[in-house]
From TrEMBL:
Name of the protein in its database record: Uncharacterized protein
Amino acid sequence: MSKLADKTEYRALSIIARMVKDFERLHFLNMTKNDDTDSCKARNLLEGIIQSNGYKVNYNGNNKKPLLKNQ
């Protein structure tokens, strides 16, 4: 799956950020309550990985960078 390291590299965090942004598209689709709960948990876990590494997801469509450094 992945190579274990002391620090998660930026490229891995960028991929995770794109996955988090894809979860936004689920808001317009019909899902069961259980599936919605599970997808929210998954999104929150992925966003937690990003935040624990000092970044946040960039939702600005005008900017190509998927991540912003926390201040």
